[in-house]
Amino acid sequence: MEKYVNPYLRLQLYSGLLVNDYATLSIDEDYNQGLPIKRLHEITGIPLNVIREDIVIMLKWQSRCSIVQADLKLTDSVLGYILEFDFDFLNEEDCAWLSKIEELYDRLMEDGFPDELEAMFIKGELDEVPLYIENNGMFHVPLTVDEWKALNFYKAKESVWNQESVKFKKNYSDTYVIKDSYLFHYNYDNLLKKLELINQAISNKYYLTANYKTAKSKMIEIKFMPVKISYDSTENLYYVLCVYKEKIMAYRLDHILTLKIFSRSESEEEVYDESLFDIYPNVWGCCFSESPEQVKIKFYNEANVWNKVKRDLECRTNGKLYEKDGYLYYEDVVYGIHKLRSWIYGFGSSAIVIEPQSLRDSIIESLKERNEFLKDRK
Amino acid sequence: MKSKSSNITVKEREFFEKLKNGEPLSVSEIEKILNCKRTSVYNYLKRLKDKGVVFKETMIKNKVYYSLEEMQATENTMEYFPMTFDILRKYTIVQSLQSNPVEKEKLRKKFSVYKPNERRGDGERVILDVKLTHYYDLLKSLVCEEKEIELNKHDNKYYLTGKEIPFIWKLDEDKMETIYAELENIPPKSPYDKQLFSIYQKLSLLRGNIDNRLPFYDHYLVYGRRTNAFNENHKFLKEFSNYDFKNKILNIHYKSDKEIDFAVGMIVYNSEKDKLYLLGENSHEKNIERKYTIINTDTIDHISETEKLNCCYNTKYYHDMVERMFSISVEKPVYVLVEFDNILNIKRKIRQLKAKRKKSDFKIQDDKILYEDEISGLSDFANYLRQFGKSVRAIEPAELKERMRATVERTLMRYEEE
Fold it and tell me: Mutual orientation of helices B85-95 and B2-20 as an angle, nearest 10°?
């Protein structure tokens, strides 16, 4: 969690949390407006004495600015914030103490910050009094440059975000640009609705029904209870997984055309064996139901091959990656050997299959065909 | 004193970083870091001790060296830089730029800061309780030291940099709820997930929910390559922003034995390679074929500023260059024509590729897909094509065909050797 050691970030945090418009959402329903110091500390983890000192400085500065405003006879001018106490929240039984605070607060805005009030803050005597800032019913979300850029790619198509994005770009002295991977194509608008429904179904054990386009472009209707969502970050593909007769079935999310809840699970006891998913680090292209094969691949140490291999295989936690005699070797049991083959092709001559013989033979045959073709075309 | 007080937070951070790194510091060293006198150092150390910081004092050659004892696990307030009047004033100046960049002289007029002959109480102004000199000191601190604001020399306007002070995104309730619901469903380890999760946490806080986990984290099985470097970009950029790379040529030592006088054209994060690069020009190289250079920021050993001007930062040429490159390359773009078999997932991948590449197009002719494009970086494009195995054939240019042919030949040889 963010520690807010930077005072600028704390200022933004206070602006965001000490809201005064509870007609919409409240940060904490126990309070009418704003939050007391004690609650701020509980929510944010910022030490109590840091928050107390921050509030004192903010109120002192507010006091100084009020005096400047009066001196310059400025009307309708703006402080970055107006920090107020919610005195109405306090228990009327403490009315002597309450009157004292109110009196000190009134002096603050006219005569400068009273030492007595500062002492009360620092000792923690005002930790329970809610404080709020005028924020006109808007929520203030601080975005770093990296967060803005990430949101930019995520929301690429949505027109509302595009307007905001243009504003960010206009206001910022941009330091770097992102050259996004040619592998990724974002279509989050459609995708997120499906993910939302599937996540609901997984959490609540609902059955879903979908119109699904098969690999052969045939339209079928499917009914299933989703148990997991698989995401292939290399191919940027999502699959919804279900279990049928002790086997994992995978449906591509981009092939699901319509999706809706069909029914709740008929039996609360309907369970599946979770250990079925232990093999997922071995699965390529979500091919859970294919036969496993033992593979061994040798990689040459040239260009940036080894770094790329290590990066791509970081998730393959059931396999072995080791160096021997100046080469890098990958050994694993693989489900979805044809997907592995595409990955191997991407390394050109820097990747050589040792096992299985069938994969090795099919690659050599393919290379020979291509060699003949290229010779003819020369 | 006024100018020093606006610098003190930056200096304190530097002091604190050295302590956290375990460096024992003498009083004279602390004087240099904090840029203050000996008495001030002792007062500062006393204030920290009053806050509960425990120092270890070691005598070495008749000098006392201060280092940090083990920090308390909780309530360690030393880490928290203090809020001061100047922080509040500078924050107010920064907030005035959130809506729009502002011209140099117009910025001052947004505030209740008046020149000697200027009429007071004239118009609406944001209150700043300082006089003109102090205002300029605050601005200088923001521009030169903290680098939260930058003056663009082309349009003479101040812009935010977002270095430490984030941009404020103002949302009404509906928009907030929509984006919150969407971010809940972002899978872990998807592109930019760390940043999107950070936004989710901020929205959670605003909704009164301090639970840090994504609610559906356990629903996902994720595999494939990771993009970890994007999360570390800010570390390099924070250091690099100490150099005036936008306006000055830099002398850069990299890859242990290379040195270059480098005019930065653009900084690019490439998500496919998961690396941050500098694109720019070797200022000594006259040959146009050789002057453009890429430097992987991981390989940089040392940087210094020269006095020579950089005239090529962020120009259209570099924007076009980034657009044309397939992955990362400064080569001249070439026309490519490639034929694919129209099978299985290939059409989907070509569609995705076309969506990314403005100058590309493809046609489907019976069982073939013809793809054409203007690409900079044939080597990267060839790497991309290889994954399609025998389902792809390079038609143009001849160089690409030759690369593909040479790869096939070399691979066959290696299989025969094995």
Answer: 100
Kindly determine whether residue A25 and residue B207, on different chains, have CB atoms separated by under 8 Å. Answer: yes
DSSP B111: B
Q: For residue A53, what is the nearest residue in chain B, using CA coordinates?
A: B83
- Burial annotation B289-316 (CB, 10 A radius, 16+ → b, else e): eeebbebbbeebeebeeeeeebebbbee
8-state DSSP, B209: -
Tokens of A257: 């055309």
Q: Nearest to residue A206, comparing CAs of A270, A258, A294? A: A270
- The whole-model pTM stands at 0.80
Cα separation of A212 and A218, whole Å? 8
**Is the model more confident about A17 or about B90?**
B90
Over residues A57-73, the mean pLDDT reads 81
Instruction: Give the phi and the psi of residue B280 in degrees, each rounded to 5.
Output: 180, -155
A261 in Cβ contact with A206 (< 8 Å): yes
Give chain B's length: 418
- If one counts every other C-beta atom within 10 angstroms of the C-beta of residue A28, the result is 16
Question: What is the DSSP pairing of strand A256-264 with strand A247-252?
Answer: unpaired
Let me know: does B80 contact A46? Beta carbons within 8 Å: yes
Amino acid type, A78: V
What value of ipTM does the predicted structure carry?
A: 0.83
Cβ–Cβ contact B164 with A under 8 A: yes
Q: How far apart are CA B418 and CA B410, in angstroms?
A: 12
- CB count, 10 Å around CB of B31? 16
* Cα→Cα distances B374→B247, B319, B349, Å: 31, 15, 18
The residue of A44, A72, A182 whose CB has the most chain B CBs within 10 angstroms, and thus the best one to mutate to test that interface, is A182
Beta-carbon contacts of B254 under 8 Å, excluding residues fewer than 6 positions away, are: B260, B295, B296, B299, B300, B301
CA dihedral of A273, B187, A45, B56, whole degrees rounded to 10: 90
pLDDT digits (tens, 9 = 90+) for B283-312: 888 887 788 999 999 999 999 999 999 999
How many other C-beta atoms lie within 10 A of the C-beta of residue A371? 15
B206 contacts on A by Cβ (under 8 Å): 16-17, 25, 27, 139, 141
Mapped onto helix, strand or coil, the DSSP state of residue B207 is coil
